[in-house]
Amino acid sequence: MSDNNVSSAAKPQPVIAGYHSHVYFDAHTFEQAESLCKAAAAQFPELIMGRMHQRPVGPHPDWSCQLSYPRDLLNDVLPWLAVHRDGLVIFTHPLSGDDLRDHRDYAIWMGAVRPLDLSIFK
Would residue 99 count as lying in a domain? Predict the structure, then answer.
């Protein structure tokens, strides 16, 4: 076993309260993204659909809609989004209380990885 595997195994597991999935879109894909987000909210009653931001918000480089859900839904929501995203970029991160690590180290991307502005977390 390499030293990298030993050090990774020794890292404490963060406590994850839930997840955010950010659906990215632009003027041409607004309706597609809105339909996807509404369908996700209908499919998963515990999932909360945020506003359709038609400008970059927070660290996000693109227009986006935030989907918030409890951690026990991750195994259901991620595959559903993967199958239904139809080319949209989706960024998912946990809610561990460490925003920088959540967005930088624990990120899950579907589609192209987009450059986040992580300076707001420093």
Answer: yes
Q: 55: domain range?
A: 16-121
Task: Report helix angle 30-43 to 74-84, nearest 10.
Answer: 150
C-alpha 85/C-alpha 60 separation (Å) is 18
pLDDT digits (tens, 9 = 90+) for 59-118: 999 999 999 999 999 999 999 999 999 999 999 999 999 999 999 999 999 999 999 999
- Nearest Cα to 19, choosing from 85, 112, 81, 83? 81
CATH number at residue 25: 3.30.70.1240
Q: 0.85 cut: is pTM over it?
A: yes
Per the listing, tokens 């502005």 go with 117
Counting the structural domains of the chain, the total is: 1
